């Protein structure tokens, strides 16, 4: 009989096996940590976890957040999370205390409206507005660890003002700005929050002034506003995009973009264009549109100041359209920056959600939905150290 392997060599072999457990199935690594004390020690070792992240490089899409409109009020929203992996439901986000008016009365049902503004680098940004007594709060939350930080918007912004926003790792803003290469973002590091809006006069037909402000968690303070005269308005429901340290916001229902004062990709259909940001392969500003049963990919050419159309992905060929229902329409719902995935919802009887991998063109059914609206994918490693396993 061959002699047993030295303990150190055995640990190395087990580590090599555990290293290859897929991050897209987080339960595998969690279950491995429960096999024995020896395995748990290996899985919780910081050197192993760092190597695990480096080995797999790109964090998986764990699920997505969306806003659900409450049935009794058009302007009351609550956030929901839909898992697309074996990730368990994240811990509950602490909600603000019930609001009360000057008379001390309290509203029945929900006391606040909470909308999702962004999800990036493992953090989610929420904007919460109380119902009866005007106040608003921004919250940056790590759904995996439960860590969160709440702070008010700038004092000169009306509590009921609708603005859009983005949250990003401070180191990402200072470097390449990519969505998936920041392996140490989870863990309470510094972050930035960028909010933007457009102010109009009493007559909404007048030109507006676009503004943007940045909050730093390191200074716990807002910077001065940067302004620009525009003829547009901001859509707070549209996800933002981070490219080369710059944040881009959709304005005027996707017809224009706030950062470069440029037109959106050409739209040949009727009504508002169905458009969403999608970073190009070389880290350039990109976008995607759906027209009929085709998904078009675009890249902004700053040199000539116009959009160049790239690939077209046939959706009717690769997706069983409601098993032959010709009335099916596809809507762009979200983009997982760093993972290169576009979320598409089908408004058929099945309410299916699909992901399109931009690199390969592969389309995968992810789940079902009813009126999710825009989706904000959560991209992160879900490992036992982040769960407080000991």
UniProtKB/TrEMBL annotation:
Pfam families: F-box. InterPro entries: F-box-like_dom_sf, F-box_dom. It comes from the Eukaryota. Residues 9-52 form the F-box domain. Transmembrane segments: none annotated. SUPFAM superfamilies: F-box domain. This is F-box domain-containing protein. The lineage of its organism: Eukaryota, Viridiplantae, Streptophyta, Embryophyta, Tracheophyta.
